[in-house]
Amino acid sequence: xxxxxxxxxxxxxxxxxxxxxxxxxxxxxxxxxxxxxxxxxxxxxxxxxxxxxxxxxxxxxxxxxxxxxxxxxxxxxxxxxxxxxxxxxxxxxxxxxxxxxxxxxxxxxxxxxxxxxxxxxxxxxxxxxxxxxxxxxxxxxxxxxxxxxxxxxxxxxxxxxxxxxxxxxxxxxxxxxxxxxxxxxxxxxxxxxxxxxxxxxxxxxxxxxxxxxxxxxxxxxxxxxxxxxxxxxxxxxxxxxxxxxxxxxxxxxxxxxxxxxxxxxxxxxxxxxxxxxxxxxxxxxxxxxxxxxxxxxxxxxxxxxxxxxxxxxxxxxxxxxxxxxxxxxxxxxxxxxxxxxxxxxxxxxxxxxxxxxxxxxxxxxxxxxxxxxxxxxxxxxxxxxxxxxxxxxxxxxxxxxxxxxxxxxxxxxxxxxxxxxxxxxxxxxxxxxxxxxxxxxxxxxxxxxxxxxxxxxxxxxxxxxxxxxxxxxxxxxxxxxxxxxxxxxxxxxxxxxxxxxxxxxxxxxxxxxxxxxxxxxxxxxxxxxxxxxxxxxxxxxxxxxxxxxxxxxxxxxxxxxxxxxxxxxxxxxxxxxxxxxxxxxxxxxxxxxxxxxxxxxxxxxxxxxxxxxxxxxxxxxxxxxxxxxxxxx
Length: 633
Known about the structure:
With about 625 residues, the protein is of the alpha/beta class. It is built from 18 helices and 22 strands.
C-alpha cells in the first residue's frame, strides 16, 4: 500500500519540477525580451554581461517565489480570479528577491527599466501559460455543445454572483447540453454588460422576445430569494413560449452555485412565504426515550411526521395504517436510514376498537399523532358513512385509547374544510375537532387540534392530478375559474403538527398561510413549467364545482378569535366549547353510519355542526336508480 501512495507523490513532484522549470525558461526569455525592448534591439555588450550575471539570481528568485505561492500546484481546469492574484503577488515577490540578491551580491548597474519590464513580461507569460489551456478547453467545449444536435439554447435569469458562478460551472463541465446565450436581469445598470463572456441581453420582461429571437428552450433562474410573486409573474410572461425552467434552491446562496444544484421548478416554489420548520429543543425532557404512535403513517402527512420524529431522535416509533404495502415499504426505508431505531409497523384500522386498544396496551405510546382520515370531498358525498366511520368514530376510538392508556399528548390533524363546512368530509373533520377538544377538557392527556390547508403533492391533491393530466397531453380540469385554495408544503404541515404537539400552545393551532392561490393560475403555471403553452398545447377545461366544494376555503370561523401568534407563523385560536352532548351525537352518528342511513348522517351532522351548509348531496340510489334516502330539510 505504501508503494501505491508513493507513485502519485512522485508524479506530483515531477509535475511541480516541470512547471517550475517552465517558469525558469519564461523568466529567461522575459529578461532577454526586456533588454531588447529597452535598447530597441541593440543591446550593448556590457549590458549582456550584466544580464548573464543577473540571470542565475533571477531564476533562483522566480523559482523560490513561485514555489512559495504554490504556482507549481496549479489547477489548469479550475483556476480563477484568486489564482490570478497569486501570479501577480508571486511576480512582485520574485522581483523583490531578485533585486535583493543583486544588492547582496554587489551586482549593480542593471537598467531599472529592464527590471520593471522583466516583471511585467514574466507575470504576463506565467499567467498566459497557466490560463490559456483552461480558456481553450472552455471555449472548445462550448463550441462543441453549441454544434450538438441536442444542444439546449439557454438563458440565465440573474447576472449577479449566483448567475456568474452558475455560468462558470456550466462552462467547465461537459455533462450537460446547455448552450448559454446570455443573461437577463432586472437591474438596468447591468444591461449590455458582459459577465463571464456572455452579454446581459435585457430585463426579465424581455424573456419572451429573446426566446422568439434566439430560439431559447431553457431558462435557469439563479436569483437568491426570488419572491414567489415575481416567479409567478415570470411564468405568466412566458406562458406563450415553450420554455422549460430550472431554479437554484434558496439555500445555495451560502455556497458556490453549481449546475448540479439546479432543480426543476416546482409548485412549492410559487408559495409566497418561507416554510415553517420545527426545531426540537434538546433541553426538553428526554425526547429520545419517548414512544410515538402515528396513525395514518403511510399517508403523505403521516409519513413525513414519522421521518421528522426519527430525525429528532425518536427511539421507538409505532406506525399504524391499513395500507400494509405502504407500511412495509416505509419500515424498510426507515430501517435502512435509521438502523439504531426501533420502527414497528402495525396494520390496523382506527375504526377497530379492540385492535386499537390492544396496540395501545402493548406499546403504551406517550405521543399520538392522528393523521388517518377520509379526505376526498366528492367521494365522501356519495358515501358519507365512510367519512363518519373514520373521521369521527375512528377519532373517538383513538382519543379514548390515548386517555385510557395515559398518553401524554394527542394531536389531531384537521383541515380548512372544517370551517363553515359545505361537505360531509368537512363536517366530519369539524366534529372530530370538537370531540378532541371535548376530551381535552376531561383528561390528563393534552389533546390539541392542528388545522391547515391543502398540502402540495400529497396523495389525491390537485398538483399530482394536474401533473398527470399535463403528461397525458390534457385537458387539465379546473372546477371553477375563481376557485381558490390555501396551500402548504408537507414539511410545513409537519412543522405545525410538531409545534402544536410539543409547544403546548392550546387546543387549536392554525398556520398563517398568506393569500390563497387561484387554482386556474396554478394550472396555467404548471403547464408553463412543463414547457407547454396553456390553451394551445394543453387545454384547460372548466368542469364545475364538485359535490361539497366551495369557491374559497377559510381558516377561521366567525366565532373563533386569534389569541396569540407564535413566531408569526402559528396562530393559537380560541373557539367556542363543543356542545355538551357531543358524545351522544357521535354515538348516534356511528349508528347511522353502521346502518348506511345517509339522510340521518346529514341530519345529525347539521345538529352537531350548526354552520354546516351542504352545497350538494348525493344520496345512494337503489338498483333501479331511485333515491334510497332523501336529503333532510
